[in-house]
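Example record

One chain of 119 residues, shown exactly as stored in the release files.
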Amino acid sequence: MDHTARYQETLRRLAMIDEGFVEDEAGLGLDLARTSALEPKTAALLQLGILVASGSPAVCLEWSTARALAAGATEDEIADVLLAIAPVTGLGRVVCAAPDVATALGYDVGAALEDPGDP
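Predicted structure tokens for this chain:
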């Protein structure tokens, strides 16, 4: 693979959060089961909260939300994480993240805001 193709492949795999690639190439363990003291669901919810608090991009929030769901978290638990971290991280971060988390949950906040009569 030539130099140009390698960097392009690296960027593509990072953009799509290719877990195996990130673990192998960057040495970042993304496996929730590695967190032996915490249940995978708890670890996934914590990771989501940290990503929101740090202002991570939409793709990271959607990926982390999907991982929390896969680990057994409910939609209500995910929403409660946003409420729980708001006093510490600031309402602005939570408000910015809410639409991206909602998208990962299959909920279109934008459409709901346009039609206030439809929850």
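Notes: Helices lie at 3-15, 19-26, 40-53, 58-70, 75-89, 91-104, 109-114.
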